[in-house]
Amino acid sequence: MRRTSASLIAGALVAALAWASAPSSPAIARDPDVGVADLTQDINQILSDSRLTIARAGVVVKSAKTGEELYATDAGKLLIPASNTKLFTSAAAAETLGLDYRFTTSVLSTGRKAGSVLTGDLVLRGTGDPTMLAEDYDALAAQVAKAGIKVVTGKLVADDTWFDAQRLGNDWAWDDETAYYAAPISALTAAPDRDYDAGSVVVAVSASGGKVKVSTTPETDYLKIVNKATVGDSTNVLIERQHGTRTVVITGTVKDPYQEWVAVDDPTAYAASLFRDGLKRHGVKVLGPTTTGAAPSGAKELAKHESMTLGELLVPFMKLSNNIHAEILTKAMGRKVANQGTWSAGLKVTTDFAKAHGVEVINMRDGSGLSRRDGFSPASIVQLLSAVRDKPWFGTWYESLPIAGNSDRFTGGTLRSRMQGTPAADNVHAKTGSLTGVTSLSGYVTSADGEPLIFSIMLNQYLSGSPKDIEDKIAVRLAQFSRTAAVDETVQLRATEAPQAGELECSWLKPASC
């Protein structure tokens, strides 16, 4: 697992405090109002891009030092935020659950042990840990074997009752049902690797000996693979799970290795299958079938696994814009505050948190932003970003945001290929957002004077050509902003080339771009 050292956390806090308190240079060169006027003129010109002619654009820029609004257009309009929704979810989770929060997965027994025989059921109980890997379920099985159990006469019971049974979020598109970024949510789940895309399996194909060979990560027989692909002169292959089934059909041609992340149909059953496989490897035989249900109150704990802390989880969550983390944390908040592991309870926690910090325009349907009925105003996002700066967890949260132009995957995240070689590089800390016809970028930037700025850019209903470069131009211009001196070389105000694939965020592209 990716661990965050004490020195890294301390460094993050120092960086955040430095950002929050950075002094601006004394205004000696010129009237500061001229600098604001220049900024307004330049942002207006950037937004005059023809791609936005029929689109909606909301932008707000605020000085974190003075509270002054430096720029605003359609500040109060309700717009689709996409993954900017995660700013609200992650902040509420840090406040409600705490950075030391850990998910627990445990194994319980309901019967009596006589020698190496457990007369009764074995219960696998989860609380939503999205970082559980096949190796973690194997380690739990090893603990059961170490306890001296070789035979379980009863059933293997999968207890996912920490959350409710609603697996998919409100308003999620039906054709995303098999996609890893919209995987079903359960209190028992498993991820294939250390990106922690819970509820999915990596299916890989390669050409060998004139045939197409298929493998999965982790190795599992949970999925039924139907391989119709053939070896060809190019790789043009489709790997897709059929709706409502465990069947993955592979068609097309394969020349070079290729892999796809595929959501499972039932994460509880999938996790239980990984655990049962682990028990078998460690010599523990469960005679009964796998079922689901709640563990009885008198069940005794045999084994336990604890996740990384929430403070550590924020890195893959926010850097890679992990939708499943957002939804699991939403239900975890509902469980803690209202004893209900539901979307409705968790979303109430987040919206109550936002409203308590002055946010007015907000409509949340899920925790990740997959729903196109989520709605925020740019002013509301800026208000949230401003309000959380004095929180004790702000340093860790601030450093979890993607950092522009930093090529390290777990530093730059979804911004690592953007704004490279500009004043915004290693400066802008911001959350990206992408849906069809929707893009957003909101966060923090330090001006050329050292003045901390907060911004939100929301672009909706454009028809063609990703306008992420427009977001970048505004962010770079903010990094150049000065109250005391003219900008020597303003950001180019018109696009000269089409946006690159790397400009999309990781919640949509796997694996090369992420």
How are the elements arranged and paired?
Blueprint: H1 6-21, H2 32-46, E1 56-63, E2 69-73, H3 85-96, E3 104-109, E4 112-114, E5 117-119, E6 122-125, H4 134-146, E7 151-152, E8 156-159, E9 200-208, E10 211-217, E11 224-227, E12 230-231, E13 236-241, E14 247-254, E15 258-263, H5 267-281, E16 285-286, E17 290-292, E18 300-306, H6 310-319, H7 323-338, H8 343-356, E19 362-363, E20 375-376, H9 378-387, H10 394-400, H11 409-412, E21 429-435, E22 438-446, E23 452-460, H12 468-480
Parallel strand pairs: 5-7, 6-8, 7-16, 8-17, 11-14, 12-14
Antiparallel strand pairs: 1-2, 1-23, 3-6, 3-18, 4-5, 9-10, 9-15, 13-14, 19-20, 21-22, 22-23
Helix pairs in contact: 1-10, 2-12, 3-6, 3-7, 3-8, 4-5, 6-10, 7-8
Describe this structure in words.
This protein is an alpha/beta fold and 514 residues long. Helices cover 28% and strands 23% of the residues. It has twelve helices and 23 strands. The protein has a five-stranded antiparallel β-sheet, sandwiched between helices. β1 and β2 form a beta hairpin. The chain is globular and about 85 Å long. The N terminus is likely disordered.
> What is the distance, rounded to the nearest whole angstrom, between the alpha carbons of the first and last residues?
18 Å
Mean pLDDT: 90
Largest sheet: 5 strands, antiparallel
Structural class: alpha/beta
Count the strands?
A: 23
In short:
The protein has 514 residues and is α/β, with parallel strands linked by helices. 28% of the residues lie in helices and 23% in strands.
